Each structure stands twice: as structure tokens, then as C-alpha cells.
Amino acid sequence: MSGFVRDSLDRPVAQATVTLVPDNQVYKTNDQGYFEFSRLYEGTYRLDIHHVRYVSEQVTLNLTDHDTTVYIRLQESRSSIEQVEVYGKITAVDNLIPAESAAMPVQVITRREIELMGSRRLDEVMKEQTGVAVVNDISAGSRAVGVQIQGFSSNYIMVLIDGQPILGRNNGNFDLSRISVTNIERIEIIKGASSCLYGSDALGGAINIITRHGAIMQQAQASLMYGTLHTLDATIEGEAPFANQRGSVVVSGNYYRTDGFNTDDRYLSSGSTTFPPYENYSFQGRLRYRISKDGTLGLTTRYASRNSKMYNVWAEDLRLEDGQQDRDINIGFNYDHHFAKGLRMMTRYYLTRFHTALYAEWLSQGVLAGEEEFGQYNHRLEQQFAYNPIRNLKLTAGLGGSMEVMDNQDLDDKRSLQTAFAYLQTEWRPVDRILTTVGLRYDQTNVYLGRMSPSLGLQYHLRENLLLKAGTGAGFKAPDYKMRYQVFFNPSANYLVVGNDRLAEVIDGLDSTGELSYVNSYMINQLVGNLQAEKSWSNNIGFTWTPIPTLQTEASVFYHRINNQINSVNIGTGTTVSQIYTYRNLPKAVNKGAELAVSYQATRDLQLSLGYQYLVAKDLGVLDSIRAGNYPYNQYNNAVTGEYRQSRPSDYWGIEDRSRHMANLKLLYMYRPWQTSINIRANIRGKYPFQETNGNQFIDDGDKFVPEHTLLNITVEKALWNRRLTLRLVADNVLGFMHRYMLGQPGRVILGGLSYRWMKE
Question: TonB-dependent receptor-like beta-barrel domain: from which residue to which, for each copy (predicted)?
């Protein structure tokens, strides 16, 4: 089928978008207004024709086995459109479970928002979001830039790409700086228990990265940024349709390198780094092809590699070099098929491989201080179904399984974690003003008993501009194999971490060779082989209020209860190793607080935003021990004031790395005559505890804290040649804040660069 689009004066209309429904093929008319679609089936079709200067048109056709030529005439629009805002659900093309199905709050970061930030890595994007904090876990080393959502640490946040989990955690922390924002279409953040959607590891929330997919024209983009710390970020992207719009391919590549920096020059000599210099390569591609009228095949691939080397110098004869190499491979296949009467089916297979190797060497002595190699595979097969039996009811169901295999040479042999799961999600709208979401998921592993994860969500339009939202859901997390089996030695910090299942074996071995100076036998007897799966229950209630079209306000309160939370515990000291740790369950902990987000479009060119979170995160077992007067929880010893007395429950500040107050402010101004934008963001974080130091086993005012601080970031963007060339200047941490307990936060960083987009007309 071919055709021509013309205006009321019979002139050709170029660059009109012609969409063929239900095939959803898209064609842009050429300078003669011509379009065509080939390899079609007989039947009834609809053409949707859109152009910004003309009134949209729809044409219905009945195709036979003969070629058809169509002539379409558009009427000029009497009004011009300066800006279009789209509201509604956005469903990923390779996953039938949309994020909005979650009972918990969902935040979406668009590709354009990321561009306006000038961010290069995922951690830089996340640290500017309300209710989200990025922290370095010192026990995991400086290479663990983890995320924290509503008080849940990185251990409980699942990170996914296109709905599939990615591997590679350092002591539980998933290092967000591993992920380039190249080729990202949007990022979905689910706050609160998400096990109902994604299974174990999503006990506290999920970050789902959606990559670009689909193409209606051939185009490519290249960008380059360079600046402070010899930071270099180079990206090339391309996309193109093929086979008459039946298929599309999107590819990208990124190279990133930066020097390390030292946030602790008070104790580390010149040349030392607390955050390592590293270089990172990543390549990813996505292909989709419609093989029939109802079926589409999809393929996604990703490869990433990072190499880093760091030096710690305490004295001339005390110099340590450590290096680490990470490799990450992801491959996914999916087949999407539409049946009659509203039934849709998707088959997905996913393979991921993560491998890391690290070493540490004392340079002066030429002695290897430590060496470790760790790798894991994950095979995952899933079958999804979506069905709309009636207009106001949608059902989404699925079942599948995964097998995770570790090949760490430090372990006795290869072990696998096998999981089977099934789930059902329903979205029911009994009346127009009410939407209910009910979910149920069951996971069964070969190590731990099965676990049911229910969730329930409600949205109620009290008025046209006032929406009430509430949700509740359960989450769970089984201990990973590192927590159970791995024995890890950190030579730079001189500590040993022993997996719970190997604790008795390792302690007996150290004791027999005389390498133990102290051991807490009572604690060891309580812990050996007794590590339990963690469970949580999340509750959230809030509202969205839009009093005027230019002002939107969202407010909510949340309460998360965690049972059997896994935490590290000191169980002894050695003659050569200063501290020995293992893992234990904390009986009960709670994260509770409130969030507020306000967005105001002050003028056509000026947008103001505000976000704030208040958080209290405490281990309730600590409060019980303080009330009972148990040693050493009964001691309050403030080294700063010299005060020493009996502890009180009010002395307990909370869990490490959690700020009571966090806020972010944003000002975005567009000066259209110059096609220039300026984006100013201030991320304010209240003080938070870093480490317990006075020996009473809980955080109080006498321990070590990171002070309150503000990170001010500014991005200026200038577009040229109809936005094909973009110049960008980025200034991060303009105020230059640094602290020795914030290992991953550099001082002031200034970068400049450009990007160029090529499009085939």
C-alpha cells in the first residue's frame, strides 16, 4: 500500500507521520508527501496521519490481494502547538509487568531529565532524586557506590535493565557507577517492597532501567565530555528501522575514565586515593523484528568492563596497591504474541554473567596481601500472560525459574541457587474514580522454604484534581552465597569476613594455628548455620493535588517493617587480622517517615521543583536492649562532652548512613531565542552516622557522623543548527564539599563537551 499526503492547495506535505494500525508501522512522508507499507496481510487497516501544522486525519481501508494507492488531504490547523505533554501509562515493549502495577510509589526519570543534568553514570542521576541517597559502604570498600531508598540499603534494592536483574554486588552493594546512562530511555524507581513484582532482592525497592527501543528513521549521535580529574566520557549511539519498518535496531557504545581522588589526606600521604582511578567500556544493542502479523521477536545484549587500580600510602615502607577488574555480560531474548480476544503472551529468556578479580600487594615488601576471584551466572526463563476479559479488568500472570551458579575459587565447589516462581497481578476499576491493584507472588528456592508475597494498591479520585493513593506489600530476601559461604579478607582495612555456614570451620582453623587472640564463643554458637531469610512489610499512603494546571504537589507517609534483617557482627580478633566479622539476623527494624514533592511551572520558560524526605530508621532490638539495661547497651559515653551515664532509649540515633532530613531543589530556565537552558540543582543532606566508635554497640551523639552538607550542581546547555549540535557545560559540587567518610564524593568537578545528532531525512 502506498499513498500521498497533500494539503488543501494540493501541495505535498513532507514529514507527516503516517501510522498503520493495528500493525503500528510508522512512515515519515518524503518531500513529495509519499509513503508506503509493504508485505501486508489482507484485511481492514486504519491510517493515522499527524503533522504539527495540520489537523490530524484517520482513514480506514479494506486491503485485498492487490496493490493500493491512497490520496489523503489535510486541512491546516488554526492554532500552533508550542509544547505537548503526554500523560498515561508507558509499558515496556519486552515486559508485560509495568512498573505502575506496583502497589508502592513509582518515580520515573526521563531521558531528557538525564540530559539536562549532564550526568554520566547512574549514581550521579540517583543522588538527585527525592527519598534516594547514594553512599559508599566502607565495609565493601571504595568501589561500592550503593543506593539507599527510604532507608533501605543497597542490599535490598534490585537493579534491573529492561525488567531483568543484573548481577555483581560487593558485600551486598550494587555499584551504580558501573552503569552508564548511555542509551537510557527512562528509569523507573519503585519505593518499598517490590518482591511481588520482581522476587527476592527487591525487598526494599527496585530500579528498572529501560533502554531505547524502536526507530522510525535512521539517526546517530556522538557526544564527548572532558574535565576535572581528567574525566573523559565518550558515547556513540545509532538507530535505524529495516524491512519496511517491521524491524528496528538500536546500538550504543560508551568509554569512561577518570582519575581517582583522596578524601582523607589527613591520614593518607600524597599519591593515595580513597576512590580509585578507573576506565569503563560498555556496549549494548537492542533489536526487534515483527515476524508475523501478531508476533515480534526481541534481542538485547550488553557488555561492560571496568578496570581500576588504587594506591594507599601511610608511610614510605607502608604502601599498598590494589586492583580490580570487572566483566559484565547480559543477553536476553523475548517473543511477544497477540492472540484474539485481548490475550497477549510473552516468552523471555535471560543470561547474565558477572566476573570480578582483585588483588592487593605491599609494594615495599613485594608481598601479595590478598587475592580473590569471583564469578556467577544466572539463567532465567519466564512466561508472561496479559488478558483483558472485560473493559475494566486487566490480569497479568506469569511463571518461571532461575538458576544462579557461583564459580568462586574460594568456595569448596560450585553451588547453585535455584528458584521457581509464579505470580498474578490484577487491575480492577469498579467505578471510574477507583482503581485497585492486587498482586500475589510465590517464590520457592532449593535452600529456603517457599515465600508468598502479596500486595494491594488503591487509587481514588476524591476530586478531579485530588488523587488519594495507598499501598501495602510484603517482601523477602534470601541470604546470598557470599553471606553463607565466602571468606573475604580486606588487606587495606585488615579485616576478615566469614560466611555464616563456614564460620565454625574457619574459626577452628584459625584457633588450631594460634591466629586467634579473642573470640566471642557465645555469639558464634548462636550464629553458626542459623542465618534466616529476611522479610519486610511496606505501607504507603499519600495524595497528589493539582490545584492549578501549573502546580502539582505529592505528599506521602511510609512505614517499612523488616524482620530478620541481616547485618555484619564482630565475633573476634586475630593475631594478624585486626577484626573478624560474620553475618547475623536482627530480629526487627523499622524505616518510617514522610516525603513531599512540589513542581511549579512559574512561566512558560521557568520550572521550579522541591523534594523533601524525613526518615527515622532504627533497629528495634537495640531499643529493647537499652530498656532492659543489657551490657554494653546500658552505657552512654560521649567523648566530645565527657558525659558518662546510663543509656536511655532517646540516646539511640538510628542505623548508620541514614539522614533524618534530605531535600533537593531545582530551577530549570529555558531562554528560547538562544535555544539555551540552565539547570541548577541543590541536594541538601542532614548529618548522618558513619560508624559506632564508643563501644556500646549503638549509634548515639558520641559516635562518628558525616556533617550536614549541600551539593550544588549546575548544567548549561546550548543548542545549535535546529538542535543537531548541543554544547554542554557541567559543574558538579560547585561548593567543593568533601569529607573523609564520603569515599565516593569528589570535590568540585567541571566538564565541558558537545554532542551532534545526524538524521536521515
Answer: 252-734
